[in-house]
């Protein structure tokens, strides 16, 4: 199946949120084998497994543990990662025969997945520059020709979680990664992106969300990003008060 702008726009029109969108993608492409990096409580896995009967194997990669070298909000002392792990297992227990649980980091677990075996991979784990570098480099050899690498938190503002945390580098790193491997990449609504593992098509960056005109890292300082977020919140409060 050729993945192009019109095909994606048609799916976007039928999708209310990111999980609906990827469910529609999986159904349309008849995905059989996929991996999710960053499972957390299992909400994404549960919906995909329930909605897509074609799925035969679902690799779930997540350390479900406190990581000493990851400075993001989901990683803090006092969080009961065993409870979160159990919640993910409970959420996907109905499809236990399809799931392959790989509890660990992508660097440690990716070799458990055979090369050229995945139709689809959803990267939603460590969004730092280090994390994105490791996740995308490790997952690419696991993809079948024509497969899809999808990403969450593809945000134009790197200060996604504030100044005290590492910046979110899904954007622009995913674009540069796609360019390095001569692959087309699409920016999508709901802060999502899609890399089509089809080198014959060549690199292109197609912005279907209409908000990624300038990928320069110096275009938004933390203060500017904070000011814009405050303005958006103020506008929403005003609209709510008027409504």
Describe this protein's structure.
The chain has 243 residues and is of the alpha/beta class. The protein has one domain (5-218): Vaccinia Virus protein VP39 (Rossmann fold). Helix content is 36%, strand content 19%. It is built from eight helices and eight strands. The protein has helices at residues 5-13, 18-29, 43-51, 81-91, 106-109, 129-139, 170-180, 222-242; strands spanning 33-37, 57-62, 99-103, 118-123, 143-151, 184-188, 192-196, 204-207. An eight-stranded mixed beta sheet has the order 3-2-1-4-5-7-6-8, with helices on one face. β1 (33-37), α3 (43-51) and β2 form a beta-alpha-beta unit. α6 (129-139) runs parallel beside α7. The longest helix has 21 residues, at 222-242. The mean pLDDT is 88.
Concise overview:
It is built from 8 helices and 8 strands, in the order H-H-E-H-E-H-E-H-E-H-E-H-E-E-E-H.
Summary keywords:
243 residues, alpha/beta, Rossmann fold, 8-stranded mixed β-sheet
């Amino acid at each position: 199946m050729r993945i192009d702008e019109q095909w994606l726009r048609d799916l976007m029109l039928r999708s209310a949120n990111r999980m609906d969108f990827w469910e529609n993608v999986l159904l349309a492409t008849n995905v059989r084998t996929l991996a999710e990096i960053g499972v957390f409580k299992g909400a994404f896995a549960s919906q995909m497994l329930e909605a897509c009967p074609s799925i035969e194997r679902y690799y779930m990669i997540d350390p479900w543990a406190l990581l000493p070298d990851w400075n993001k909000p989901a990683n803090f002392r006092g969080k009961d990662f065993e409870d979160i792990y159990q919640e993910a297992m409970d959420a996907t227990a109905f499809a236990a025969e399809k799931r392959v649980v790989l509890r660990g980091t992508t660097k440690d677990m990716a070799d458990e997945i055979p090369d050229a075996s995945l139709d689809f991979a959803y990267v939603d784990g460590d969004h730092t520059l280090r994390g994105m570098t490791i996740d995308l480099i490790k997952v690419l050899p696991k993809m079948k020709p024509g497969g899809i690498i999808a990403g969450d938190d593809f945000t134009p503002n790197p200060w996604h979680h504030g100044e005290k945390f590492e910046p979110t580098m899904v954007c622009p790193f995913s674009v540069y990664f796609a360019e390095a491997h001569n692959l087309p990449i699409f920016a999508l609504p709901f802060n999502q992106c899609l890399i089509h593992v089809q080198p014959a098509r060549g690199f292109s960056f197609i912005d279907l969300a209409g908000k990624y005109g300038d990928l320069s890292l110096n275009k938004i300082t933390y203060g500017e990003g904070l000011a814009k977020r405050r303005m958006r919140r103020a506008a929403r409060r005003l609209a709510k008060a008027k409504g």
